[in-house]
Amino acid sequence: MHTNNNSNINFKSISSIAKPLSMFYNPNATIPTLIIESGVTLGRSKAAYKKSGKIEATERFVEQGTSAVVWLWGVQAFKKIGEIIGKNIFKIKDMDFDVGFDYLRNPLENISKKAMSFKIANILTSTALATVFIGFILPKINHLITNKTLSKQKQAKKDSCYKPLSFKDFKKSLKPADKISFTSLSGGAEYLTHLLENNSSARLFITDAGVVAGRFYNGRNKYERIENIFRDVSSIYFYLCSANHIVKLLNKLTGNVNISPDAIKATVQMLGDNLENTKTDKFNFLKKAKPSANITDLRKIDKLFKDTKVISLEKFSGLFPAYAEKALSISKLQPELKGKRLLTKLQAIDVVSKGWVNDDKFLHELYSKVTKGKYARKEKFISAKEVDKIRISVDKFIEQINTEAKRTTGMLDKKFIEKVANKNMFKNFAFYSIGTALSIFALGTLIPKVQYLIRRKLTNDDEFVGIKKYEK
After folding, report:
1. Residue 190 or 92, more confident
2. pLDDT over 70 (residue 45)
């Protein structure tokens, strides 16, 4: 395999979309969540204002806006405070390690129990505090704001000697020019807090479950509780899953591959280095880039991994001595585990395969780019499932390039591969954007519409159920 870091491949057009697309592949990126939360906050506040007025709209604005800030930044700040406490009071020198392990990696193997226990406690405490704040404290703050506003309105009506009007009568009495604009909503910033951990969908789901319970508990009457539980439970899917499901569906319908921009860059660079300035036909390209391994070797590997997910390097090299050097290099795609170097089944297949994508130097470059250098660090955790996903996405991208060649002249060169890479990333960016937009629509518009339909069905009007008194 040719490797040339000074390859003359032009990445200008690729990099133009790679950076904004990368945020959708980074689980810690705040921009996608910020976009969704901004849309949801404005959508729900606007819907509340249209239906029942400024009081409910303010509650929605404070509730949604404050929750968003907690999800995005609060818990990270709280974790930092916890780490400062750990270093200065508990004398824990290093907390730059991941909590998590599987059959391929275990960052906790050489970590002291004291450090591990403190970090777990720090994360769980941050999550618990975020749940308590959003689910139990924030509703009380909202209720206090509303009670204070209603008290001022009541006092103002007494002072003015005017006959009190119901909200419906007040709304009818307004002239078009006097109607309060949506942009007049205020509140929320002073009540923002700093409590949340949001590193995974599972943790977010657990936290959301606590928030649902808290908001249900703090409902001021049974109708508000019904609305809260419908809104919060139905929102979980659109926050956590809907965008990814839409991307998966659109990629399947268009024959596109969901692959990270960093993986595409590494793959395009590798293919360009191997092709140099030559052209090749689609059959020769696939044969060299991703050939099938020897069937005898594959059967041996199937037998090796029949009852296990990993095997030791020594065991593999004993059965495949001709591949010992390459096997050692590929085993270094992850740190040693209990003093042993291991191989997964997919890695074993890469060892015995002779394609460009199976080259050990390329695989190291691939994982280095996609994981930002974490792939071989013993204190960092990347699941075996995620490692396999990265590797399989490259195979699928190679197949996509070959399929695109079949649709045209059947010939490939560096410019053609770059064109396919651009097309792939523009599609994925469009699909993630569509998925995000549909999530915002569902969370900010569709769910509130159904919520207010439920309100009208139960109470026969649109007034804010949180401040309305109902007969038992």
Report:
1. 92
2. yes
Same domain (yes/no): 168, 214: yes
Give me the pLDDT at residue 470, please: 64
- 289's tokens: 């880039």
Q: Is 373 part of any domain?
A: yes
Q: Are residues 75 and 138 in the same domain?
A: yes
Total number of domains constituting the chain: 2
CA separation for the pair 359, 339 (Å, rounded): 25
Same domain assignment for residues 401 and 444: no
Q: Minimum mean pLDDT among 123-137, 183-197, 303-317, 373-387: which range?
A: 183-197
Three-class secondary structure of residue 398 per DSSP? helix
DSSP secondary structure, 237-277, as one string: HHHHTHHHHHHHHHHHHHT-----HHHHHHHHHHHHHHHTT
Structural domain includes residue 445: yes
- Give residue for tokens 């929102």: 235
CA atoms within 13 A on the CB side of 103: 10
Decide if pLDDT at 324 tops 90. yes
Which structural domain range is residue 282 located in?
A: 257-427
Q: What percent of the chain has pLDDT over 90?
A: 44
Average pLDDT, the chain: 83
Please check whether residue 354 is in contact with residue 247, taking contact to mean a CB–CB distance below 8 angstroms.
no
Exposed / middle / buried, residue 189 (Cβ in 10 Å: 0-12, 13-18, 19+): exposed
